[in-house]
Amino acid sequence: KERELSEAQAEIKALRLSERQREKAVEE
């Protein structure tokens, strides 16, 4: 279960990073 939780957290981090990149692209 711990492994699944860490994988889910990694996916969330990736999603947040992609969202930030999208916001930066819109600003430019």
From TrEMBL:
One of its GO terms (cellular component) is microtubule. This is Uncharacterized protein. It is found in: Cytoplasm, Cytoskeleton. InterPro entries: MAP70 (IPR009768). It comes from Nymphaea colorata. Belongs to the MAP70 family. Pfam families: MAP70 (PF07058). One of its GO terms (biological process) is cytoskeleton organization.
